[in-house]
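Subject: Sanity check before I submit

Could someone independently write out the structure tokens for this chain? I want to compare against mine line by line before I put it in a report. The sequence has 106 residues.
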Amino acid sequence: MASAPSLPDTYRLLAVFSGIPLDPLEALGRARLATVDEQGRLCYTLHARNVLSILVERRQIIWKKWDANKDGTGIPAGYVLTGVGEADLACYFDLYGPAWPGGRPS
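---
Independent answer below. Compare away.
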């Protein structure tokens, strides 16, 4: 389900993050800021990369890497929502309503 076009891209992207790490390209795809090339691969524009950079600069998301378990398994590294990001999401919600009606895109 697509979001309303009037929502800021920073809100659309921030709203896909949680405490579960997300790869940057996966996050951009979920926020519908990535495109699909001729081979069916996700790719992103300079604008999409800049939106991701804005969230990092504002400390709304951070890169998190956990150590692997003894058996070699573990949580993959990725960006996660910070406390600042959670507070900003609440402000965006108050201004614009839900970014993704029906829940976060997967």
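---
OP: Matches mine. For the report I'm noting this point. The chain has a mean pLDDT of 87.
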